[in-house]
Amino acid sequence: xxxxxxxxxxxxxxxxxxxxxxxxxxxxxxxxxxxxxxxxxxxxxxxxxxxxxxxxxxxxxxxxxxxxxxxxxxxxxxxxxxxxxxxxxxxxxxxxxxxxxxxxxxxxxxxxxxxxxxxxxxxxxxxxxxxxxxxxxxxxxxxxxxxxxxxxxxxxxxxxxxxxxxxxxxxxxxxxxxxxxxxxxxxxxxxxxxxxxxxxxxxxxxxxxxxxxxxxxxxxxxxxxxxxxxxxxxxxxxxxxxxxxxxxxxxxxxxxxxxxxxxxxxxxxxxxxxxxxxxxxxxxxxxxxxxxxxxxxxxxxxxxxxxxxxxxxxxxxxxxxxxxxxxxxxxxxxxxxxxxxxxxxxxxxxxxxxxxxxxxxxxxxxxxxxxxxxxxxxxxxxxxxxxxxxxxxxxxxxxxxxxxxxxxxxxxxxxxxxxxxxxxxxxxxxxxxxxxxxxxxxxxxxxxxxxxxxxxxxxxxxxxxxxxxxxxxxxxxxxxxxxxxxxxxxxxxxxxxxxxxxxxxxxxxxxxxxxxxxxxxxxxxxxxxxxxxxxxxxxxxxxxxxxxxxxxxxxxxxxxxxxxxxxxxxxxxxxxxxxxxxxxxxxxxxxxxxxxxxxxxxxxxxxxxxxxxxxxxxxxxxxxxxxxxxxxxxxxxxxxxxxxxxxxxxxxxxxxxxxxxxxxxxxxxxxxxxxxxxxxxxxxxxxxxxxxxxxxxxxxxxxxxxxxxxxxxxxxxxxxxxxxxxxxxxxxxxxxxxxxxxxxxxxxxxxxxxxxxxxxxxxxxxxxxxxxxxxxxxxxxxxxxxxxxxxxxxxxxxxxxxxxxxxxxxxxxxxxxxxxxxxxxxxxxxxxxxxxxxxxxxxxx
Length: 845
What we know:
InterPro entries: NatA_aux_su (IPR021183), TPR-like_helical_dom_sf (IPR011990), TPR_rpt (IPR019734). By secondary structure, the protein is an all-alpha fold.
C-alpha cells in the first residue's frame, strides 16, 4: 500500500523532480533523503532517489533502490517508469520497454511515459509497436501537427507508404486556412508527402502535387530537383531538359545535373557516335560562362583518341597557366585508361614556359611572371603524376618536386608532395620531418597540421603527433589533448594511433584505441534518441528518415572495419598466447621466445612488477595534476568528465575471454560488410578457435566465393582440411560432422592431395609475393622439415618484378614467425635494403 505524503512533503517531492530535471543532483538527493526520514517507505521518493543516484554513476545502488521502491508500491507508475529509465541507461532496451508498458497500464494518460516508450520502440526498430504508440499519442493530442507527422513517419519506416501519405493528407485537410509561407514545418511536411507519393510510384500524381506546393515551398532546390526527376521518369523530355538546364544555371559545377541532362537528351557516353553531340553540348555551356570548369572537365571522361588529346591539351594548359593546385586530383580519375594516362603524361612533359596556352579563353596575367607560374605548375603536376600508383616512378617524382622547390622553397604544397614521395619510398621518418616543415610554413592551416600528425603517427612517433594535434585542441579538458580528441570523436587520429601502437607491439594501447572507435559507434547509435524527438518537433522529416536509414547501416562505415580487424587480431593473439595479457609483455618490452621455464617465470614476474609500477606512476601523475589544476575538467559537452581509470588499456588486455570480445567486433563486420574478404578471413580465425566449425566454414565459403585465389583463403582451406582429417580434442556431433564433410567436398575434395594442391597454387602464382608467402606458410603446416627450403624460396621473392615495399616487409615478418636464424634474417634484410635503401623499417633493424 503506498504511503501518502503530507502537503509539505508533497511539495518537497515535486522539488526533487524539478531539481533532477535541472541536473542539480546533490540537492535532489538531499531533498529526497529529507522526505525519506519521515516517510521511509514512500515508493516514488525511493524511485527518484534511485534515478538521481544513477545519474551520479551509482548504477548498482540505483537498481537495488528501484527494486525496493517497487516492493513498497507495485502500482506506482512513477516506480515502473524509473525502473524503465534505469534499464535504458544501461542499454537493456527490451527490459526498459517492458517496464514502460507496465507503467502505461497503471497510468494510460501519461504523455511522458508514452513518448519514452515510443522512442524506445523506434530505437529497437519495433515499427508495429511504434505505430501503436504514435496512434495513442495522436489520439491524446490530435491538434499537434507533429503527432500526425510522427505517425506518418512510423508507417513510412514500416513500409506502409499509403497509410503514411493518408495521415499527412488528413491533417492538411483539417486546416481552415493555408499556413504562412514562412512556416518551415508545413514546407517540410508538404515535401515529405510528395516524396511518399513518388516512392509509391505514382509519378504523375507526385508531379501534380509538387506543382500545387512549389510556389510557397522554402526549399527551392529540392522542388526543382524533384520536378526534373519526375519529368524524366514520365519521359516528358522537353520539359525535363528545360528543368535540368535551370538546375545547371543554379549550380553549374554539379556533375549529376549534367549526367541527367545527357540522359534526357538520349546521349550515351559509351556510344562513339554521340561524342560529337556531347562535346557540342558542353561547348555551349562554355559560351555562357568562360570560368566554368565542369564543362571543360567532363568531356575528358568520354572523348577518345585525337579528340581527347585536343581537349586534354586545352584543359591542362589553361589550368597550368592559372596555377590551379588541384589540377592533378581533378584528372587522376582518367588514369584508369592507359591511353589517357600516357597522353596526359606526354602532353605535360612536352610543355615549356614558351608554349603556354593559346586561345581566347586563357587567363590574362597582370601580376607576377606568368611563365614562372606555368613552369612551377608543370613541375608540381609531374611530381604528383609520377608519385601516383598508376604511373609511379619515384625517382622522377623526386627530381620534379626538387626542381619545383628550387623555384619556390616556401611552398607548403610542394613540401607536402615531397613528404608523400618520401613516404612511398619507405622513408617515413624523413617524410614526417618534411611534413612538419610544411606545417611550420603555415601554422594556421588545420589541414596541414592534421597531415603532419598523421605522418608522425606513421613514423610511430605518437608523442610528437599528439603534441602537433594539441595546437588545435582544448587542452584544459580531462586527459589533455588526447582527451579532447576522444571527446570530438576524431576517429582518423584514434585509429592511426592504434595502428602505430600495434606496429610497436604495444597491444594494450592499441586495443584501447580500437575499443574507443567501437564505443564511438555505440554513441552514434545511442544519439538517435535525441533526434527521435528533435527532428519531429522541428519538422526536419526528410533528413530524419535519411538518418534512420543511414543508422541501419552504421557499422558498414570503413572506419569501423579498419578498427575492428586489428582489434580482432589482438584478441586472437591473446587467446593463442595468454601471457600477452601482462601489459609489459604486450607492449613489446619483454620477449618470451627462446626462454626456458625458469627464465620465462622470471620474465613474467618482471612484467607484472613493471605493470604495477606504471599503474602507480600514472595514478601519482593524475593526483599531481589534480593538485595543480583546481578547475574541474570537462568533456566536449561542457559536463564534468571522469578520468579514465585505465588509460593504458591494461584492464582491456586482461579479459578472461578474448574470443568473446573479438565476436563483439566481428558480428557487425559480418552483418554489414559481408563482401569484405578480410572480415570473412577474421571470422574463420575466431570461429575455428571457438570450436564453431560450421560458422568457420561459413566464413571460409563466403571468402572463397569472393576471391577463390586469395592467398589467405588458400592457407585457411588447407588448415580447415587438416583440422577435419586430424582427431579433434573435442568430438564433433555426427550431424555437424556430416555437414562439414559435405561442405569440405565442395571446398577441397578428400581425393585432393594437400601437398599437390599447395604446389599447384604456388606454381600458378609464382610471380605474386603474397601468394608465394601463403604457399610457404601452408607448406610449413604440411611439412615441418621444409623450413630451410621455405626460407630459400622466400629470399627468392625479393627478385620478383614490381615487388612492393609492403610485400618486402611482410617477408621479413614471416621470417620472424618462423624463428629463422639471424644469418637468414640478415641476408634477407641486406637484399631488402638494396631494394629500398630509404625505407625506415629496414634502417631501424
